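Async update (no meeting this week)

Hi team, since we skipped the sync, here's where things stand on the single-chain job. The sequence we agreed to prioritize is pasted below, unchanged from the tracker. I ran it this morning and attached the output directly underneath so nobody has to dig for it. Comments welcome in thread, and please keep replies under the output.
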Amino acid sequence: AGSGPAAAQAREQPVLEPVLPAPAEEQNGTDGAKAPKVNCEERNTTGIDRFTLQILNVSQDLMEFLNPNSSDCTLVLFYTPWCRFSASLAPHFNSLPRAFPTLRFLALDASQHSSLSTRFGTVAVPNILLFQGAKPMARFNHTDRTLETLKDFIFNQTGIEAKSDVAVTEEDWEGPLPSVLTKGIDWLLLFSVLFLAGFVMYATIRTESIRWLIPGQEHEHQE
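Output:
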């Protein structure tokens, strides 16, 4: 599914229901007519001239952008800027807001929102979730992450058809989601390695101390 998400900082969120994975028959195509599984309230696009992806920064909370009292739908991408799978997905995800102007699209760096990654089961990136209001409804499970498979996923879940004239452009390769890898440190992995090393050292010292307390072990050592 991609590289490990790496995360460092945490923030408190309300408890949400677990995400239901997309059924197996949806993962390999859209053969046959299927009833939409999520009844999305399409937003009013009057007065909106530019449909683009919004990327949350480290200080922004995802829950502030999801209205639990509404039935509108939002597609949220968890990514990391140093993940090559996230980078290859970027131009395709950047083009989605133009294909589905009545839906909302958000992206967040999983390494900056570790609590959300844990809450929604983001064990690898990129990870794409479809929300209705503040409730996660489905997870994108395709290994082929292209504009077409993303459009099929949204159509299968919501019944909303994509605009047929939308394609990936040069601007989509430029942003807002970066398609070029950036060097970074996986702080969660580094912390995990340090913690494991410290635990091994502690266990070794502790075991040695216990061995000296066992009758007969001390004399055997002296001999």
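Quick observations from my side:
The helical segments are 84-99, 114-119, 147-158, 170-174, 187-213, 217-222.
Residues 5-18, 23-32 have pLDDT under 50 and may be disordered.
Reply here if anything looks off.
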